[in-house]
Design brief:
The complex is a heterodimer of chains A (about 325) and B (about 110). Helix content of chain A is about 20%, strand content about 30%. With about 325 residues, chain A is α/β, with parallel strands linked by helices. In chain A, a hairpin with an 8-residue loop joins strand 3 and strand 4. In chain A, helix 1 runs parallel beside helix 3 and helix 5 runs parallel beside helix 6. The longest helix of chain A is centred in the last third of the chain and has 19 residues. Chain B has 4 helices and 4 strands. The N and C termini of chain B lie far apart (about 30 Å). In chain B, strand 2 and strand 3 form a beta hairpin. Classes of the chains: A alpha/beta (about 325), B alpha+beta (about 110). Chains A and B meet through strand 17 of A and helix 1 of B.
């Protein structure tokens, strides 16, 4: 059980900046994300792309922006929980809110700020894998040594699939990579490494069946065009088809959902007491879905939350330049 | 705003764009795919995935005919349907629609 003033759901740019502001307001803050890393979409989808419309940065690489936002956020000394999805939100008799994650973590908090962007990412469906109920499906790859006794089948043609095939090619008993298309979309150098490796490459084919009761015994691979099927010995299947984003459980939290967004007021309140939202997930007339706007909404939300939690305190936080101590180590040097 | 799929997709239906779209906003008609601009997050992943360069990024270079055609696929009732498709929130659950916009059907027939 964690007691915090503010729980922030979503650790993308808006959530990280909101975390900084929670620290500036002296709030005890927790930050949760269903991904296993900070930085949300920017880190997951375009870490190497440059962004040109963040105030003060004529050009900044995605991963560098995330690094700066993270450093800024850590000044708030947040409790950070990654790889867990917030599944339920309920009002408690004392007026606080309890949020639970799918992993069973519970937060009792004075307020909730949803900065969940386009929602949570879930693995793309793969019918043959989804129909199988036993062990041996690895959505997260473990250390290479654990695969020494395994015949591994990897499904997918992007960077994750090819990188994992390369990583396991030397250590696993066998590696087969199956891709539905004629070409890989992974980096050329990785693909070249793959073709030079021990891995068996099966193109234009799909994983059609996974056989076994408690453990995987074999799989059937079918050619996408000819329909020819053949069996491959397998004990581990790694689906690496990427992820799809959707709102997930928060769509059922009694908020006003417009399309894929949450309707908010000018103070970023959602209409449900103590629940606020900021960033790409919000909607109101004239909304512009940019990081630059999300940063402003994060500041608006957290300062209104601070004033709500502590009656008598001003919504305006004062100027950060006047702070007695900088929140970021090394700042101001 | 949003990315749009142009004429080069007709008869192609490669689907590499669908594999990389993180929000599942690319829908399959009969001969062509269409991007739902309300669901598209402008990430650009589909742009480089397309083998026939059929996709255009938001901006002045977008062909207004195909902006309108992508919009029409969702906003107007398709020839075999009574209601507009709207914003279903993901193409996977819906599957191929088996029908194109009148413009695409006409161009596909004349190929």
């Amino acid at each position: 059980m964690a007691d915090v003033d503010l729980l922030i759901i979503g650790a993308g740019p808006a959530g990280l900046f909101a975390t900084y502001y929670a620290g500036m307001r002296g709030l005890r803050v927790a930050l949760v994300d269903s991904l296993d890393h900070l930085g949300g979409q920017v880190a997951a989808l375009y870490p190497e792309k440059h962004v040109y419309d963040v105030a003060g940065f004529p050009a900044v690489r995605g991963r560098d922006l995330v690094a700066g936002l993270t450093r800024q956020a850590l000044g708030a000394d947040p409790q950070i929980v990654l790889g867990e999805e917030c599944s339920s939100l309920e009002d408690r008799p004392d007026g606080s809110i309890r949020v639970r994650t799918t992993a069973g973590t519970a937060f009792d908090c004075g307020a909730v700020l949803i900065t969940a962007g386009i929602g949570r990412f879930t693995p793309r469906a793969l019918p043959a894998v989804d129909a199988y109920r036993g062990d041996g499906i690895h959505r997260l790859v473990r250390v290479a040594e654990e695969y020494a006794e395994h015949d591994v089948v990897i499904v997918g043609g992007g960077d994750s699939a090819v990188d994992w095939a390369n990583m396991l090619a030397e250590t696993a008993r066998s590696v087969t990579i199956v891709h539905r298309r004629a070409g890989f979309t992974a980096h050329e150098a990785s693909v070249a490494q793959l073709h030079a490796s021990r891995a068996r490459v099966v193109m234009e084919s799909e994983l059609a069946e996974v056989h076994g009761r408690d453990a995987i015994e074999r799989v059937v691979i079918r050619h996408a065009k000819t329909g020819d099927a053949h069996e491959v010995p397998a004990s581990v299947v790694i689906p690496a088809l990427g992820h799809i984003a959707s709102l997930g459980p928060l769509a059922d939290w009694g908020l006003t959902i417009v399309g894929r967004q949450i309707a908010v007021g000018t103070d970023m309140s959602t209409g449900r007491a103590r629940v606020f939202a900021a960033g790409d997930i919000t909607d109101y007339p004239g909304k512009v879905r940019l990081m630059a706007v999300g940063f402003g909404e994060a500041a608006t939300a957290v300062n209104n939350i601070a004033a709500m939690l502590r009656p008598g305190e001003d919504v305006f936080p004062g100027h950060s330049s006047e702070l007695a101590r900088p929140l970021v180590a090394g700042a101001g040097v | 705003m949003g990315y749009v799929i142009t004429e080069a997709c007709i008869g192609e239906l490669d689907g590499s764009c669908v594999d990389v779209c993180p929000v599942d906003c690319i829908y399959e008609g009969l001969e062509k795919r269409y991007i739902n601009a309300n669901e598209c997050i402008d990430c650009g992943a589909c742009l480089t995935a397309c083998p026939v360069d059929a996709i255009q990024a938001p901006g002045a270079d977008q062909d207004p005919i195909w902006i309108e055609d992508n919009r029409a696929f969702f906003a107007l009732p398709l020839p075999t349907r009574d209601e507009p498709l709207g914003d279903p929130g993901g193409a996977t659950g819906i599957g191929p629609l088996g029908v194109d916009t009148p413009l695409v059907a006409e161009r596909a027939a004349n190929r």
